[in-house]
Amino acid sequence: MDDRQRSSGGGARSSSDGSKSKTAELDPVLHSIGFEIEEVSPAQLTGRLPVTDRCCQPFKVLHGGVSALVAEALASMGAHMASGFRRVAGVQLSINHFRSAAVGDVVLARAAPVHLGRSTQVWEVKLWKQDPSTQGKGAQISESRVTLLCNLPVPDNLKHAGDALMKYAAAKATITPSRL
Predict the structure, then answer these.
(1) Which residue has the higher pLDDT, 12 or 153?
(2) CA distance 124 to 118
(3) Distances, alpha carbon 124 to alpha carbons 43, 69, 95, in Å
(4) Whole-angstrom Cα distance, residue 82 to residue 172?
(5) 72 catalytic residue (yes or no)
(6) Number of Cβ atoms within 10 Å of the Cβ of 56
(7) What is the average pLDDT across 13-26?
(8) Any idea of the CA torsion for 76, 78, 83, 86, to the nearest 10 degrees?
(9) pTM for this predicted structure
């Protein structure tokens, strides 16, 4: 092992380690609760959250505020990309909680645009429990709508705020808002 490998913590990274590193760079708050961002594009963002004590309320189920945090974060990143990396600001968040997720569950998240206007965007964010037998989506646990102002000017002192997102963003394609 050379000095570079030693200083970075060892050899090859697993894809989970790569997701954790990406999340740490894109959103330190999401990273702090264990969320792992997977897909990053202006048309869709996805990720997963292993439910641990760190993100639960006292009854050992996922805290509703954590679901709201995930929704706001993913929608804001998506809106930032969809607006050409202009500044965005969330102005409204509505969330419905359908089921709980307990410690040990894995929650899957997907954010996609519903409306991409010149001055506002609306994003829908859905969370599901991961089905342990298929590793795919199981029961839906929540659904959110996030409305954001977009195309706001970026202050000179924050011109590089979107650099990490640009680094990980998939090539911008024609974005057609779709139902999740």
Answers:
(1) 153
(2) 18
(3) 11, 13, 10
(4) 8
(5) yes
(6) 17
(7) 73
(8) 50
(9) 0.85
CA 36 to chain centre: 8
Based on the number of CB atoms within 10 Å of its own CB, is 130 exposed (0-12), middle (13-18) or buried (19 or more)?
buried
How crowded is residue 94: how many other Cβ atoms within 10 Å of its Cβ? 11
> Hey, what amino acid is at 72?
E
Select from 104, 103, 97, 109 the least CA-distant residue to 48.
Answer: 109
The active-site residue out of 25, 38, 39, 72 is 72
Q: At 176, which amino acid appears?
A: T
Show Cβ contacts of residue 81 under 8 Å, excluding neighbours closer than 6 positions: 40, 41, 42, 165, 169, 172
User: pLDDT tens for residues 57-105?
Assistant: 999 999 999 999 999 999 999 999 999 999 999 999 999 999 999 999 9
- Which residue type sits at 125? V
Could you tell me how many residues make up the chain? 180
Q: Look at residue 12 and tell me whether its pLDDT is greater than 80.
A: no
Beta bridge partners of 56: 62
